[in-house]
Hints:
7 helices; disordered N terminus
Amino acid sequence: MVKKKDQPTQERILAAARKAFLSKGLAGARMQDIADEAGINKALLHYYFRSKEKLFEMIFMEAAQKLFPKINFIFESNMPLFEKIEHFANEYITVMLENPYLPSFVLNEINQDPVSFFKKLNDKFGFPDPSLFLK
């Protein structure tokens, strides 16, 4: 767990990483560029996040935390089907506009290890029962 006094450093790292991933994608982003943008050295960046992939995963999970509870709410609501579809599309588009790097990250993770990726998401957020969407 990060100590309270270290939170500003971690927040600067995350902001710098979001900027790098947004402009260059996962493959193009460099840890040195992230460290420079955060105003720290690369060793400190690696102290907080051991790899670029771990850093990206944390940013992904932050974005997923915004989306999944909303999706679960939509699935479990008593809205008519077309309202559910409209709300789902609106929430998805909003999150994707705020986090345009997510689709490529998700596809990359699914291609590398789909079982582990979906297990991680399910353990963290729980997947809604798809049949709830039709009720």
